[in-house]
Amino acid sequence: QVQLVESGGGSAQAGGSLKLSCVAFGRTFRGYAMGWFRQRSGKEREFVAASGWSGASTRIGDSVMGRFTISRVTATNTITLHMHSLETEDKAVYYCEIAFQGGPSEDSEDYDLWGKGTQVTVSS
Prior knowledge:
The protein is 0% helix and 50% strand. The chain has 124 residues and is an all-beta fold. Strand 4 and strand 5 form a beta hairpin.
């Protein structure tokens, strides 16, 4: 059984930086995509960033383009979301997800498993 374990997050001031990491545990597998979505209070879940298997193929959501990046270490089944120039609108619960088939997608329906989520709070 695959399990996603998220870490990082917490609180920061606007203009600051935070980092989120996610590790996939449970079995040996290849060719999967991993990424992050977020859900702000009262809003629908929103795509943030995703990485394909090798990390060479990535996608970044429009709302965080130029501020967030994603990196991946295939050997440890880990992805990291690097968040810079944080804005108060970035406050949300961030969810790690994994897609066992296909590349980095912006559609939540393409993902097979979600983590429990980690809270990010940004103050002005």
